[in-house]
Every structure is written in structure tokens, then in C-alpha cells.
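User: I'm curious whether this sequence folds into something compact or stays loose and floppy. Could you predict its structure so I can see for myself?
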Amino acid sequence: METASQLAASAINPTLVARVAKGEVHAFNQLYDQSSTLLFSLALRILDNREEAADVLQEIYLNVWRKVVRYDVGRGTPIAWLITLTRNRAIDRLRARGPRSLRQMASSIDDGQTSHVADPSSDTFDSPADQDLRSLVVEAWVSLPQVQRQMIELAYYEGFPDAEIAAQLNQPVEAVKTCIALGMSQLLESLQSYWEAAEAV
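Assistant: Here's the prediction. I'll summarize afterward.
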């Protein structure tokens, strides 16, 4: 049985990306298989539009294949690099739609209208291990205070700088930075514990 760590995109080896850079089609297909579900989910979460999310993914992988963007091992893991590319491209598309007020976004977060990723009934992930991991992420997410979730959503999914988030939520900028960092750290710790437990099986 495959472990969660084998299924997780974080297991992508930097040498695989190096092989893609050399034009190896099999390596490119493997990179796509290991990362596309996660990246599509991220793009969909930001854009709330399946066609646009698919377009973002196509652009990212095409740029990787054509060497428009290059992976630098000194700047983090391959999946962190791909997530950054996807997030930035999706946010660029979101901003191109026109301005949206922070008040409207914060309201939609409060109402739960933007929490597509936190829907455990979604069939984005199919295998039992994926479903277990998804349940863990949802559990860790809902355990965060609401204001912390708002800050993380506005920063990571809407692309707003700390100063704008602080103004919207009437919080000091440093408090926003600290709160976001602590929340992301807590989510990472939850995932790390799960991967370690899965590898021990």
C-alpha cells in the first residue's frame, strides 16, 4: 500500500526536475503526475474557476518544459517552487479581473463561501491515503482561530500584502505577520506528524 509520503507532491526529487530540464519526456510526465493534483487544487482555490485553473496549470507546465522558468535547488524544494509559480500566476489572473474590495473578501471568508478546499466531500483526491491526508488538513485548518484563517486566506489565496490585511482586520502589521507564520507552522507540523506516522507503518 502506498504511504502518504509517496503520494505527497513533497516527495518530488530535484533530480527529476533536472531530467525534465534535459528534455526527458518520461520525467516530465512523472513530474506532472506527482504535482498536478495539488497545483490544480491551489489554482482552483484561488480562481474559483476550473477552466482558468486548468489554463494556469497548462501555462506553468509549458513554461517548465520550454525552460522559460528554471528550478534552482538553492531556493527550496521542487514542489515549493511549483506552488510559488502556480500561486503567482493564479493571483496575476485574479488581479486582471479587476479590483475587489478586501471587505467583500473578508465577508466571503466569514460566510464560508471561499472554503472550497476545506470541503471533505470533494472528490479532488481519490485514494484512501489522499482522503486521510485531506481530512487531516481540514482538521488542522478548522482548529486555527477564525481571524488567523482569514489572514492566511487573504495572504496566500488572494495575494494581499500584510499592510492591507492589517488595515482590513484592524491589527498591527507585525501581529499579522506573526499570526500567519504561526498558523502556517501549525499546519506544517500537522502534516509532518502524519507523514512520519505513515512512513513508520
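Summary: The mean pLDDT is 75. The two ends are 10 Å apart (CA to CA).
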